[in-house]
UniProtKB/TrEMBL annotation:
GO terms for molecular function: ATP binding; hydrolase activity; proton-transporting ATP synthase activity, rotational mechanism. The lineage of its organism: Archaea, Methanobacteriati, Methanobacteriota, Stenosarchaea group, Methanomicrobia. GO terms for biological process: proton motive force-driven plasma membrane ATP synthesis. It comes from Methanohalophilus portucalensis FDF-1. Keywords: ATP synthesis, Cell membrane, Hydrogen ion transport, Hydrolase, Ion transport, Membrane, Transport. Pfam families: ATP-synt_ab, ATP-synt_ab_N, ATP-synt_VA_C. GO terms for cellular component: plasma membrane; proton-transporting two-sector ATPase complex, catalytic domain. This is A-type ATP synthase subunit B.
Amino acid sequence: MTKEYKTIVDIAGPLIFLEKTEPVGYGELVQINLPDGTTKRGQVLDTSADMVVVQVFEGTQGLNDESGVVFSGETIKLPVAKDLLGRILSGSGEPLDGGPRIIPEKRVDVNGASMNPYSRRPPEEFIQTGISTIDGTNTLVRGQKLPIFSGSGLPHNEIALQIARQAKVPGSEEEFAVVFAAMGITNEEAQSFMEDFEKTGALERATVFLNLADDPAVERIITPRMALTAAEYLAYEHDMHVLVILTDITNYCEALRQMGAAREEVPGRRGYPGYMYTDLASLYERAGVIKGNKGSVTQFSILTMPGDDITHPIPDLSGYITEGQIVVSRELHRKGIYPPINVLPSLSRLMNSGIGEGKTRDDHKAVSDQLYAGYAEGRDLRGLVAIVGKESLSERDQRILEFADLFEDRFVRQAKDEDRNIEDTLSTAWEILSELPEAQLTRIDNKYIDKYHPAHQKAE
């Protein structure tokens, strides 16, 4: 027989504090019975010999010391089935699309099981997003975790949706799915997400979790874990290749900070909990490929940097854990360029593993290096032009300056529905590089120039 405890001694924000309970487990699910007959759900956040702290999912309005608390004896579990595909769910896994509840094949703990490092397979298979600045210069590899660092007001959500629609493994017949989790977004953003998924048909191979800005902050902490649990099930039970898109990690961290303040914890940098690194790692490290398993989980986490500050604790800690970053530029956005991805501070640490002959193309690495070098020099020259004027530059420098403009206008810029394959991306790169004298293509081997340079192809 389950016991009901009416021993609430304090209520602080989304937390309630109980005393004189029997031993309960960390993360245990709780049902709270209010005096008016309604119920709320919660989870054990902290437990000790004389006090238990419970975080309430639906907020603590209406609770008092007459409310009863029943401990369930189990942790939060997500009902999983292949029917998850094509569904739109709340941040706690409840249907939002008017459809029935998921009939589960099984129920899985949302905290997941730790992946044995020895059983991980090094990521090495190319994922095509259809966006040149990612595929060409900061390649995403199956099993990688690659965050997008953005700022408020920048089109990171549009980039996320484009990736969700277009992502695929070229030449592979294996099933590919997208799990999209949005945390702390507005109703307007949620509507645009749902409309886009339904209109483009991407929903057929996607599972969407939506946590809105007016939903409880506690739910925001569960949402990414729900999404990753669904992704792991599809990947490891149904051999699917799953791309998980989490937006916005900053809202998730704000929820962590709110919970820490309610618990009166000693704050770390800028008021965020000292354990935020570990907490973020528990999300990011659930990406990967397991030896002997056909499925994989790849992660794109989007975070908006407060004040565009890349040294802020959230992007700073994320950069330590993940394998690179894609940086969205306010300067390019002001120029009207979409997607405004700045390749210079962007980085994919696993790029070299996923490109080359048999994966993308033999000239991919050399072309990427040459684009990067030319664009970096062109950006530096823009600063010089502001001081001495364009006329003072040598002919070579003027060519490099024009190359930087061309790179932004032809390579970076593309339409929101433009899905470039890797061949198109590399061909566009060669067209831009052909504007420079061959003698300046110092990062590219002559055999690639002979094989792919437009001038040599016309000569043939």
